[in-house]
Amino acid sequence: MAPDRPAAGRSVPEPARPIVDVRHLTLTYQTADKPVYALSDVSLTIGKGDFISLIGPSGCGKTTLMRVVADLEQPTSGEVTVNGMTPEQARLKRAYGYVFQAPALYPWRTVERNVMLPLEIMGLPRAERKARAAEQLRNVGLAGFEKKFPWQLSGGMQQRVSIARALAFEPELLLMDEPFGALDEITRDHLNLQLTQLWRRTRKTCIFVTHSIAEAVFLSTRIVVMSPRPGRILDVIDCDLPAERTLDIRETPEFAALAHRVRDGLKEGHSYDD
Ligand SMILES: Nc1ncnc2c1ncn2[C@@H]1O[C@H](COP(=O)(O)OP(=O)(O)OP(=O)(O)O)[C@@H](O)[C@H]1O
Ligand SMILES: [Mg+2]
Q1: Ligand nearest to the CA of 72
Q2: Of 29, 201, 249, 260, which one's alpha carbon is 20 to 30 angstroms from that of 120?
Q3: pTM of the prediction?
Q4: Does 10 reside within a domain?
Q5: How far is the CA of 62 from the centre of ligand 1 (A)?
Q6: pLDDT by residue (tens digit) across 236-263?
Q7: Are residues 56 and 118 in the same domain?
Q8: Is ligand 1 within 6 A of the CB of residue 62?
Q9: Same-domain pairing of 80 and 115
C-alpha cells in the first residue's frame, strides 16, 4: 500500500485555493507612437475572504490589473487564474462582479431594474430577480428606492446601486475600481462603513482600487502598494486591525502606523519623470 495514501474514510484537507492568483504578469499596451509599459512582473495571491486594496500613483496600472483579472485585457506575459479558472472561463461563469469608477447605470431603468439586469441576462425567473434585487438593495441601505430612477439619486446612492448590482448575481469576487473616488468625504466615510459591514457579513473576496490611504487602511485585510508606471508591487502590508471596525479606529496609533507605512511605500516609489 502506498504510504502516503489516506486511510479509508478519512479525507485530507486540501490547501485553500486562491481566489485570484497573478504570476509574473506583464502588460504592454501597443499604441500608435510607442509601447506603454503598464505592468511589470506583478505577482499576487489573493485568498478567499481577503479584502485587498491596490494603491499607487495615477497611471501605475491599477485599473489595468483589475481589467486583466476581469478578462477585459490580455496579459503580454505571465499567468492569471480566478478561482482556479482562466479569466475568460471566470467571466463566462460570472465569477466576479465589477463596480466601475462611474456608476454606469441605465437612466431609463428604475433602480430595481438596473440591479435586475444581469439576472435577466442570466435568465433567472422574475420572482427570484425581484427577491435578489430587494435583498441587495437592503444590503447597501437602499430599501424603498426600488422604483426611483438613477437620476433621482445622489452620486453616493448611485454608486451603492452599482454595488448592489454587482452583488446581485452572488459572485465570489468583487472588483471595485475607485468606487467612492468622486464623493465628498462625509459620504465616503459613510459608504466605507457600510462596505466594511457588508464585507464582514458576506466575506466576499474584494479587490478595491483607491487613492486614499485612510480608505485603504480602514477597509483592507492587505494593502498592495504599487510603483509608478510600469506598475510593480513595492510592498504588501497586512492590515491586522480587528475585523469589526468603526470609523473611530482611524484615531488609533495602530491605524496611524499602518497609514505611515503605506505613505512611506508610496513616497519611496514616487518619481516625477514620466
Ligand atoms: N487601452 C490603452 N491603450 C494604451 N495605453 C493604455 C490603455 N489603458 C491604459 N493605458 C495606459 O497604461 C497605464 C496604466 O493605466 P491604468 O488605467 O491601469 O492606470 P491606473 O493606475 O488605473 O491610473 P488612475 O489611478 O489614474 O486610474 C497608463 O499610462 C495609461 O495611459
Ligand atoms: Mg484607474
Answers
A1: 1
A2: 201
A3: 0.88
A4: no
A5: 8
A6: 999 989 888 899 999 999 999 999 999 9
A7: no
A8: yes
A9: no
